[in-house]
Amino acid sequence: MFVSLSIDRYNLPLYSCPVLNEKEKQFMDNYFKINPDQKGFFNEYGGMFVPPELEVEMEKITDAYYSISKSHEFISELRDIRKHFQGRPTPVYFCKRLSNELGGRIYLKREDLNHTGAHKLNHCMGEALLAKYLGKKKLIAETGAGQHGVALATAAAYFGLECEIHMGEVDIVKEHPNVVRMKILGAKVVPATHGLKTLKEAVDSAFQAYLQDPVTTIYCIGSVVGPHPFPMMVRDFQRVVGIEAKEQFQEMTGELPDNVVACVGGGSNAMGIFTAFLGDSECRLIGVEPAGRSFKPGDHAATITYGKPGIIHGFRCYLLQDDKGEPAPVYSIASGLDYPGVGPEHSMLKDSGRVEYTSATDRECLDAFFELSKKEGIIPALESAHALAHAMKLAKENSRQSILVNMSGRGDKDIDFVVEHYGKDYGIDTD
Asked: What are the residue ranges in the chain where pLDDT is below 70?
């Protein structure tokens, strides 16, 4: 049985909570108060490793976030945006045909139905609203698959702000539909032309641009990564996913899900849904990383599985590293997952054992992509298909269990790339 604690699903600091034992209740009461600590650490991970001049701006943003985001005016405006602009709440959907075929019960939290087609708008509208209150004139960010870029360009258009999106040259070609969407929305798209020309390089490029003018601009990072306060801010804005999903699943089934599954690159969608279930010991939480082509260095981006603690882009986390301790080359068929680091909160949860982390290969991802499309009429983003691939494994293993998957985005952006490179393997004539 669930009890609503002064619940408003659009009010950031509040959340639905089941009837817990004393230990679990204490955990939930304290978790968001102590994670992160005042210096932005989740145990040993996180922090703020930035140049002194940028540290001043980070502290200003932190102070502003703690004061402005808790105000009635801010919460009311964000609540209105989520309901009337984003189209929240997004539904939970039961995959009847897929479940009947596999055995277990698969449910999807339909973030692909959020405006712009992914969960990214949840934090982008929050960050842009904060920028408005701070008097900022311009939003700067990186993007991998383009969903964060589209979401931030949308937020910039909504609030009348300038927008500059940095994107790796490889991803610009791969995710062309999203590049066009960003430009239509009025954003300037800046190619990252160094290194592997993918997500890590896009972050490098965006940070450099932000350093040029941190006073009138704000860096709206695309995941629960980066220096404090960004991992905390993005998590808090994404918590709405888990808040809704928990209520909806309880209403549909009368119980909690046995498994909650989400893909993990930086890890924003996963933190968004996991946070609502952290105090529920009967819920198994599983993050799915990209195993790519193989587990050889440079062929995957399974950071938590094969990485070790290190520092990247101003924070400490599990990190895939080369022999010199530098961020290692990474790869994923899903552009939004090919990052050598991971959110500091995920790093902490991995060490604690509360969240399990596994991986799915490119081929498993593609199989899930086509299976969901043909069985349920839902084309998933390649990122989300990693989570679905593992959910399908779980469904085959235990027919009595329920699996709630965060369907973090839709696959419109991926269809040209998938059909061109893999269409024939799945019976799609590309001629």
From this structure: 1-29, 431
